[in-house]
Amino acid sequence: MQNIILQPSIRQKIDKRVDKILHDLDMPEPPLRLDDVRELLRLDLGYYQGDSDGLIHQTIHRLTMAGKQIIERPTILLDALRKFSIKALYIPDRKRILIDETLPKKKHRWATGHEIMHDVLDWHELALRGDTDVTMKQSCLDKVEAEANYGAGQLLFLRERFAREALDSAPSVELVKGMADSFGNTYASTLWRLVETIGITKPVVGVMHHHPHPRFSSPKFDPANPCRHFIRSDAFAAQFSSIAEMHVFNSISGYILPRKGGPLGCESVILKDDNGDDHEFSFESFSFYHECMTLCVHLRKRPLIVGVGSISDPTL
Fold first, then answer.
1. What is the pLDDT of residues 264-301, one digit of tens each?
2. What dihedral angle (degrees, nearest 10) is formed by the CA atoms of 12, 18, 22, 25?
3. Does 134 share its domain with 25?
4. Which of 103, 113, 214, 259 has its CB surrounded by the most CB atoms within 10 Å?
């Protein structure tokens, strides 16, 4: 899944909201305590079981969403939860975040941060309430989700605190792993934030994918959509817009080691920019057993080599 590149003006608006939260919390040290954030914003947190109709019905009974439509048909929310496999949601009328208990515990933190941003970004309210003019447009929904994801990354990684540490170090898989531990977040969200941070002017790509080697192939692997996350930096999206995720995945598959876990190899890969010029990227891959990570970092533009042959002088 390819990430959406947000406009700088939107990012600035989101950054200001996050900065205010962190300032009101006296600029906390990592990892950020989300209980403190919820207390500051007066947000409630509850859980439901995606495979338990009883608890979902109890939750729906107490909620008001999308005006009279939900009151008249309380199963609309239930239908949406099932149809779209929603694992977390924010209820604006009740200022309440709900998380599916079947979601792996390590993902609760990101889900909570994402839903917190739906509350903080007040222009999301129409979409959250089921406004027909908004929700009928998938592109608008995708943008709303991208904004919440961006805000969650800024919040959970403490904005400039993460940026300073990331820019002071050479980008690598080990850096992603170390910063994931220190900030208390998942490897995928840390990779995402690192690409955003170092990739404003530097072409960088982060990929979360299943193991491409046939011996370790996952039943979840979809050959048509091999990348769960294909994270392009601003500079990469601007200069290498023609590079598809399948092309990058095929490059990864070309050097990957037949190893179930741990380092899977490194390779220098040539990618063409939108002008047709060759650029050298460093690819580094690592397997966490259930999923793999690849970090692709721009190294240099390859010089154009022009062959010079002998020239006869017709006057001689």
1. 999 999 999 999 999 999 999 999 999 999 999 999 99
2. 140
3. yes
4. 113
* 300 token code pair: 């240099």
Would strands 44-48 and 96-100 be described as parallel, antiparallel, or unpaired?
parallel
The domain boundary residue, chosen from 137, 156, 175: 156
3-state SS class at 306: coil
- Domain hosting 48: range is 8-156
User: Using CA atoms, how far apart are residues 220 and 122, in angstroms rounded to an integer?
Assistant: 36
Contact 77, 70 (CB under 8 A): yes
Interatomic CA distance for residues 80 and 65, integer angstroms: 12
Cβ neighbours around 294 below 10 Å, total: 26
Residues 144 and 188 in one domain: no
Q: What is the pLDDT of residues 2-43, one digit of tens each?
A: 999 999 999 999 999 999 999 999 999 999 999 999 999 999
CA distance 189 to 187: 6
- Give me 275's structure tokens: 């002008």
CATH number, residue 98: 1.10.10.2910
Number of separate domains in the chain: 2
**Which run of H or of E encompasses 71?**
helix 68-72
**Under a CB-based contact definition with an 8 Å cutoff, are residues 51 and 40 in contact?**
no
The Cβ-side half-sphere exposure at 207, using a 13 Å CA radius, reads: 28
